[in-house]
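Session log. Operator J.P. requested a structure for one protein chain; no other inputs attached. Running the standard single-chain path with token output.
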Amino acid sequence: MLDKDVSQLSIAYPSTIGPEDPPILRLAGPLGLNVVNSVQLGNEIYGDLDVSVYGIGWWKAYPDLDRKTRILLSDYLVACVRAVPDNLVEAQVERLELDHAIEDFRQWMNRGMGPVGRSTVEAPKNPYEDLSNYRVGTHLAGALRAWGSALDCVGGCIIGVAGLPSNLIKADLDAALRSLGKQSSGNQVLAQLKSDLEQVEANAGPAGWRN
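Structure written below.
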């Protein structure tokens, strides 16, 4: 991490945050993340687990889900929703490390910058400098992997919470949205969910950012 990020993250937690608070919520604020809703969703899904039904209570209405399948899918759904904020934190950590790697790489390249039309990239002076290029690629891949995993887990949450006829284990966000689009016709609740998700995506970035 860059020195400025280390300094920012070294500020003590406020006294209002206690050791009993979920670590993911303690970390999210200093990292510039808002994961409150995803944590609350995880708590609500976990609260839906029914020891007499063996899994998500309202899933008992689906006769195609036998007990074993319901147990496994319920556990998977809980893990899926818990993984959303975890992946967002991992992505942000990778981004901070990427900033540091880019700065080190820039300093190395700047040593070879000369007058216009003349530049000579010097050989790395040590292994740390030699690794700067690899570090850039590694942390960029790590950030993209974590962001992609967070989106895939959101897709699993959509399928599980909305009860969509789609493969939860192999879920990703695109598959979830396609299934939601097919099932939302004539269903006011699913149509509203589809509309809300489209608005959230539109607010998150430029058109097509997810592709």
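Operator note: The chain has a mean pLDDT of 90.
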